Amino acid sequence: MKKVFRNPVSQWLFGILPPYFGMGLANYSSRKSREATGTVEEKFLGEEKEWLIIHAKEILKEKKIDYFIFGHRHLPVDFRLPGTSRYINLGDWISYFTYAVFDGEDLQLKSYTGKEDKIYRN
After folding, report:
1. Which end of the chain is more exposed for a tag (fewer CB within 10 A), N or C?
2. Which residues fall within 8 angstroms of residue 77, CB to CB, at 6 or more apart?
3. How many whole angstroms separate alpha carbon 99 and alpha carbon 107?
4. Mode of pairing for the β-strands spanning 120-121 and 76-80
5. What's the pLDDT tens digit per position in 25-69?
């Protein structure tokens, strides 16, 4: 499927679809993928099992980084790491409606529906 999604002709064909149809097709494909893999809802696995948190901690042993920002995990997470560092996973805009705002000093993970209780914070 990756070859189909990355094919320029496939991308062009998807691009000419009306947005309503394109989003419907994307949602259908996502639903079918989750049914096939058995992944229905993303869950925070814990500090010791989240590989991106483990990876961020390894990097922090070598240098200071304020924010580690990821998005592919689809689960909104704002996790405080050692020191003042934070691991941020943006979540998504279909299920969690989450996004990040950086004001030049601080980064905040928010939900545009106001339902920020779905964001995992420690």
Report:
1. N
2. 44, 50, 87, 88, 89, 91, 109, 119, 120, 121
3. 10
4. parallel
5. 777 877 776 666 555 557 888 888 888 999 999 999 999 999 999
The pair of three-digit structure tokens given for residue 5, joined into one six-digit string? 């999604």
DSSP bridge partners of 87: 68, 79
Cα–chain center distance at 12: 25
Q: Which residues touch 33 (CB under 8 Å, ≥6 apart)?
A: none
Three-state DSSP class for residue 83? coil
Residue identified by tokens 């259908």 is 28
Helix (H) or strand (E) holding 37: helix 19-37
Structure token digits, residue 68: 């580690």
d(C-alpha 27, C-alpha 29), whole Å: 5
Q: Is 23 in a helix, a strand, or coil?
A: helix
